[in-house]
Amino acid sequence: MKIFQKVPQGYTSRQGKYTTTQGVPLFNHKALISMLSATSEAAMSLPIKRRSSPTEELEGEKERSKMKLRSFMKPGKEQQEVVVLGRPDSEISVRMDSNVLDCIICFEPLKPPIFQCEVGHVVCSVCLSKIGERCHMCCKTTRYRRCFALEQFIDAIKVQCSNAKYGCNEFIAYYQKEKHEQECIHVPCFCPENGCSFEGSTRSLLDHLVTMHEWSPTNIKYNKALRISMARDRRFTLFVGEDLSMFLLGNILTDIGNALTMVCIGPHDSELSYSSKISVVDRVACEKGRFVFQMDPLVESSSLSGGIKLGKFFLLVPPELVDGSTGELTINVRIDKVNP
């Protein structure tokens, strides 16, 4: 395998290596070659199709396509599909150890800018700021330079989002995978029912709750109060907004009453924000103004991965507000859209 690099003006070539007039290597290919050596020749196939004309060849040079590589990780690591920018006339499959894509000091994914010592040992920019001019491998003072060829190689490696089975079709740079998945709108939501292992998109979760657990969602209009009656021991009440956003009113029994909390079902805070107002009134003495009230200026989003939990804002309802004849709570709920 040959690796070529354009030589900037003012550099000369000595013994097959590009050097400055002072003899300092411009780029040592050992780092990149060692990374490529992690691939398995037995798993590599490179079918090449000849272009029919120079015109087609020129067009092919201008337009880069994606070549898919399937990267099979070490035992214990999940399989990932990797996409590398390349020519439209070939496709390769390789076995790659993902550890070669990580900084050997902090073990975080390598990302530009990447630096190398005079020998060729690479380090990320964060670690370079800590170790100064001393190489962690050579154990001696050295000069670090940008490793542009390795940066191009790292940028070319794309991996599929782990939420592909939930609808995400994104391929992102390997070093951006973790950040993307923290913000991915296709992160699965979980069923809040005890003992249920369902996980899926918010839309599939709604279907699951209705069909499998026979929940009856309550439609709610924004900016308008809705009065409902809820059994004191009922754990969940599901509301569906006009834009099909889902809100879960959780009811947690405590020694001093009922704790009510509202969450928006979703993997993370979306572009849309909501506020909520919840009040519980004494059905018998409501004309006397006996009630408890709570307003949440920003309803938190939750994937329900840990079940329903009390957030920063919740409403504590004393037992005296439970209807003695029916064992129900009379609750007023209002959800408003918050302008961004």
TrEMBL record:
<comment type="pathway">
    <text>Protein modification; protein ubiquitination.</text>
</comment>
<dbReference type="GO" id="GO:0016567">
    <property type="term" value="P:protein ubiquitination"/>
</dbReference>
<dbReference type="GO" id="GO:0061630">
    <property type="term" value="F:ubiquitin protein ligase activity"/>
</dbReference>
<protein>
    <recommendedName>
        <fullName>RING-type E3 ubiquitin transferase</fullName>
        <ecNumber>2.3.2.27</ecNumber>
    </recommendedName>
</protein>
<keyword id="KW-0833">Ubl conjugation pathway</keyword>
<dbReference type="InterPro" id="IPR049548">
    <property type="entry name" value="Sina-like_RING"/>
</dbReference>
<keyword id="KW-0808">Transferase</keyword>
<keyword id="KW-0863">Zinc-finger</keyword>
<dbReference type="GO" id="GO:0008270">
    <property type="term" value="F:zinc ion binding"/>
</dbReference>
<feature type="domain" description="SIAH-type">
    <location>
        <begin position="156"/>
        <end position="214"/>
    </location>
</feature>
<dbReference type="InterPro" id="IPR044286">
    <property type="entry name" value="SINL_plant"/>
</dbReference>
<keyword id="KW-0862">Zinc</keyword>
<keyword id="KW-0479">Metal-binding</keyword>
<dbReference type="InterPro" id="IPR013083">
    <property type="entry name" value="Znf_RING/FYVE/PHD"/>
</dbReference>
<dbReference type="Pfam" id="PF21361">
    <property type="entry name" value="Sina_ZnF"/>
</dbReference>
<feature type="region of interest" description="Disordered">
    <location>
        <begin position="45"/>
        <end position="67"/>
    </location>
</feature>
<dbReference type="InterPro" id="IPR013010">
    <property type="entry name" value="Znf_SIAH"/>
</dbReference>
<comment type="function">
    <text>E3 ubiquitin-protein ligase that mediates ubiquitination and subsequent proteasomal degradation of target proteins. E3 ubiquitin ligases accept ubiquitin from an E2 ubiquitin-conjugating enzyme in the form of a thioester and then directly transfers the ubiquitin to targeted substrates. It probably triggers the ubiquitin-mediated degradation of different substrates.</text>
</comment>
<comment type="similarity">
    <text>Belongs to the SINA (Seven in absentia) family.</text>
</comment>
<dbReference type="Pfam" id="PF21362">
    <property type="entry name" value="Sina_RING"/>
</dbReference>
